[in-house]
């Protein structure tokens, strides 16, 4: 089975978010980049499925050379080859077009990615790729088994989950607990150095949207503290002053 | 040129977040000088359509195809696309949800429409069409200009009040022309907590963390939630340990909530948890450690032992009702 995992290269979840240039540019000072946490789940499940079916696992990132260490990490976790489409991702549609084009040229049985990126939180790329390719797309998926040419999945819905079956090829947006995050071991790290990392030219394509500026939320006021014996006062305040009860 | 709003149901009723989307769409339509129409898929009662009218839609388009009562993403996207061109709409508004997000993404390609998700306010129409959306899991906002003629906005919960219009909605039934190919994914089963408000839809959320010590103590959380009419949530370790189901896990890698009141009990307030709750209107934190980082993100705090505080708090809420 040929599996593709699309990964994002995003600030670590503990990063302090700040902007420069009059709030038009994300400030990268001191920011550590990682594989998107949801993409990391997709990758972990893909490694397991590749091992079960002795298939081939490709990881793909649409991004500039700054993503290379992130792709190497994916190789260390267990991908067989990495591909980077060399461009600055402009918006979800632009990225989806690049991915769809790559899939058209390379035929995969299964295309996995995170349910959303942890920077722009769009959660749209899987659906767009599905529509561009005329294939089903399912997200957010918590369980994925492959049985011949059919995928058996469980998808999170509000307050529960749904079991589904869909034919391959298929696009899946992943989240936990689809698999446990894998930490690269020494052997993985060593072999990642010699695995192929191919760089491809992007397709020329327009984006649909563009960010004009950024803003931080207003700072929180100070917390009002109560003791265990003042619970009644707090409840009155929640009702009469904050109007939340 | 109309604004079309995609409404979803939950437990036989239109979701509150969908009614918010209707009101958002109506306000937007008014400022564009056009009309707000709602589209509903699968069986919807007349009573529910009335709520859609009150929230601001002037007309409903009902695609009553039974096959659409299940949330098959490709099928919903095709049905909406058909209605979108039928009513000659330019803008689609929907509430962000597990199904809505997936459907919107496919529609963006079908309709050649720029899609912005996590929308946090009405668009700025003074120069083009610029939308404020939440990014970095609520840690910042981005003002995004949509460049396409057709547009899709997936809005966050609780960003505006539901309107109360006084008029009757006309509902037109539209025949479905969906072929079998869009139903290639099949739903084979479903498990859903019955009879309670779901976490993303709830106005009040009570969440427990590892400080609750074990699943056997969750009755304390549930008792308070019942008195408040709240949904229950939890931190990631709690669902990882299987104390609670995964669909209750709140945070960066779980459900993002924006209730009117978020109550966090025995949760330390790690940055990844805060990411899922930072757009709550008010936050109440209960923790025995006065140094717990959550207090910095809270509006109200009780420094105390959850096992003592929770029964008292539940009684106090009961008393005031
Ligand atoms: C990439 C990534 C993504 C993550 N995503 C998420 C996510 O989506 N959601 C999430 O929640 N976490 C997430 N985490 C984990 C997160 O970093 C924290 O580990 C987690 O939130 C801690 O859960 P907790 O507060 O329940 O437990 P703890 O950190 O163990 O805190 C327990 C708290 O309970 C208090 N306490 C103990 N006993 C009592 C008592 N009797 N009465 C009152 N208070 C008491 C303690 O003072 C403490 O503050 C993520 C981590 C990573 C690396």
Question: What would the CATH topology of chain A be?
Answer: Rossmann fold
Strand order, main sheet of chain B: write it out. Answer: 7-10-6-1-4-5-11
Give the biggest beta sheet of chain B. 7 strands, parallel
Uncertain spans of chain A, ≥5 residues at pLDDT below 50?
Answer: none
Q: Order of strands in the sheet with the most strands of chain A?
A: 11-10-9-12-8-1-6-7-13
Percent of residues of chain A in beta strands? Answer: 25-35%
CATH class of chain A: Alpha Beta
Cofactors, ions, other ligands: flavin-adenine dinucleotide
The CATH top-level class label of the largest domain in chain B: Alpha Beta
CATH superfamily of chain A: HUPs
| Helix/strand order of chain B, N-terminal first | EEEHEHEHEHEEEEEEEHEHEHEEH
- Total E-strand runs of chain A: 15
**Per the principal axes of the C-alpha atoms, what is the gross shape of chain B?**
globular
Helix content of chain B: 25-40%
Describe the protein's topology.
The complex is a heterodimer of chains A (245) and B (321).
Chain A: E1 2-6, E2 9-11, E3 19-20, E4 25-26, E5 33-35, H1 37-53, E6 56-63, H2 68-77, E7 81-86, H3 92-106, E8 110-114, H4 125-133, E9 137-147, E10 150-157, E11 160-167, E12 170-174, H5 186-192, E13 197-200, E14 209-215, E15 224-226, H6 231-240
Helix pairs in contact in A: 2-5, 3-4
Chain B: E1 2-7, E2 9-10, E3 13-14, H1 16-32, E4 36-41, H2 46-54, E5 59-63, H3 73-86, E6 89-95, H4 98-110, E7 114-119, E8 130-135, E9 140-146, E10 151-155, E11 170-173, E12 186-192, E13 204-208, H5 218-228, E14 231-234, H6 236-240, E15 261-265, H7 271-274, E16 282-287, E17 300-303, H8 306-320
Parallel strand pairs in B: 1-4, 1-6, 4-5, 5-11, 6-10, 7-10, 13-14, 13-15, 15-16, 16-17
Antiparallel strand pairs in B: 2-3, 8-9
The structure holds flavin-adenine dinucleotide (FAD).
């Amino acid at each position: 089975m040929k599996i593709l995992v699309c990964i994002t290269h995003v600030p670590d979840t503990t990063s302090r978010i700040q902007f420069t240039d009059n709030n038009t540019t994300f400030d990268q000072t001191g920011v550590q980049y990682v594989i998107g946490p949801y993409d990391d789940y997709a990758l972990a499940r893909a490694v397991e499925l590749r091992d079960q079916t002795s298939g081939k696992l490709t990881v793909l990132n649409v991004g500039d050379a700054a993503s290379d260490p992130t792709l190497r990490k994916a190789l260390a976790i267990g991908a067989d080859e990495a591909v980077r489409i060399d461009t600055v991702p402009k918006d979800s549609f632009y990225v989806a077009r690049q991915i769809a084009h790559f899939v058209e040229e390379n035929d995969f049985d299964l295309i996995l990615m995170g349910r959303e990126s942890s920077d722009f939180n769009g959660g749209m790329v899987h659906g767009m790729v599905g529509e561009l390719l005329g294939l089903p797309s399912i997200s957010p998926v918590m369980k994925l088994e492959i049985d011949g040419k059919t995928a058996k999945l469980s998808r999170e819905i509000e307050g529960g989950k749904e079991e589904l079956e869909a034919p391959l090829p298929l696009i899946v947006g992943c989240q936990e607990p689809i698999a446990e995050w894998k930490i690269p071991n020494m052997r993985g790290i060593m072999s990642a150095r010699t695995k192929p990392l191919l760089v491809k030219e992007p397709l020329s394509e327009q984006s649909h949207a563009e960010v004009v500026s950024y803003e931080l939320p207003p700072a929180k006021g100070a917390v009002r503290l109560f003791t265990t014996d003042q619970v009644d006062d707090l409840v009155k305040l929640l009702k009469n002053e904050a109007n939340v009860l | 040129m109309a604004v079309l709003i995609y409404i979803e149901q939950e437990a036989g009723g239109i979701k509150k977040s969908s009614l918010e989307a209707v009101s958002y769409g109506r306000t937007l339509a008014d400022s564009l000088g056009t009309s707000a129409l709602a589209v509903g898929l699968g069986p919807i009662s007349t009573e529910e359509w009335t709520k859609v009218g009150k929230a601001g839609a002037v007309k409903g388009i009902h695609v009553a195809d039974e096959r659409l009562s299940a949330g098959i993403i490709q099928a919903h996207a095709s049905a909406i696309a058909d209605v979108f061109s039928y009513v000659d709409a330019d803008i689609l508004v929907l509430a962000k949800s597990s199904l809505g997000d997936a459907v919107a993404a496919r529609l963006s390609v079908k309709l050649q429409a720029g899609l912005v998700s996590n929308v946090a306010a009405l668009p700025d129409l003074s120069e083009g069409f610029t939308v404020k959306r939440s990014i970095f899991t609520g840690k910042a906002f981005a003002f995004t200009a949509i460049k396409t003629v057709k547009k899709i906005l997936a809005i966050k919960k609780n960003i505006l009040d539901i309107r109360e219009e006084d008029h009757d909605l006309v509902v037109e039934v539209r025949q479905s022309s969906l072929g079998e190919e869009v139903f290639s994914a099949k739903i084979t089963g479903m498990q859903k907590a019955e009879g309670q408000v779901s976490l993303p839809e709830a106005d009040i959320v009570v969440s427990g963390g590892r400080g609750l010590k074990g699943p056997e103590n969750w009755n304390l959380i549930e008792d308070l939630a019942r008195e408040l009419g709240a949904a229950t949530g939890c931190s990631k370790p709690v669902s990882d340990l299987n104390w609670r189901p995964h669909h209750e896990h709140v945070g960066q890698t779980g459900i993002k909530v924006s209730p009117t009141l978020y109550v966090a009990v025995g949760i330390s307030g790690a940055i990844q948890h805060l990411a899922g709750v930072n757009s709550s209107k008010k936050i109440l934190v209960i923790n025995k450690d006065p140094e717990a980082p959550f207090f910095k993100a809270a509006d109200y705090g009780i420094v105390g032992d959850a096992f003592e505080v929770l029964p008292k708090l539940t009684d106090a809420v009961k008393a005031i009702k």
